[in-house]
Amino acid sequence: MDWAIDQSHSNLDFAVRHMAISTVRGRFKKFSGTIRAEEDGTLKSIEATIDASSIDTGEPKRDAHLRSADFFDAETSPVLTFRSTGVTPQGGNRYRVNGTLTMRDETKPVSLQVEITTPMKDPWGNLRAGATATGTVNRKDWGLNWNQVLELGVLLVGEEVRFNLDVEAVAARVAVAA
To answer: Model's pTM, two decimal places?
Structure first.
């Protein structure tokens, strides 16, 4: 069964250290994806596409810098993609999802911890389910190298990026044969 991510009820958030003092959080506003599951609900695969220019940290100058060639290079590489390569059940509704993340024409392996909810019908008869996914990546693996070294050797922007996805998905309607 295929499920489409409902962007209006989903979030793709990230967090990175700033000057080793605080954590800056942001999100991507535009993304889409398909989740495949067995009829019994067992997760099979995930594919997602993220619009790099939709990054939003709440600070316009920082967002413009993140869209620039120093980071996402959104003009040249407008899309980030994730494709699962393997799904391992971890018990209950939890899974480890291995896959590839492509940013700036670089494809690298990533791993997500995913927990899914039990599907239910919404008031309009659509079947919906939710999932939460978490993981970490080192931004330098994709060529997002810009930084400044501050006093005591502290980096202005941390290299490790933590991300969290809270997704609501709608099952594709199956056409009934006449």
So the answer is: 0.89
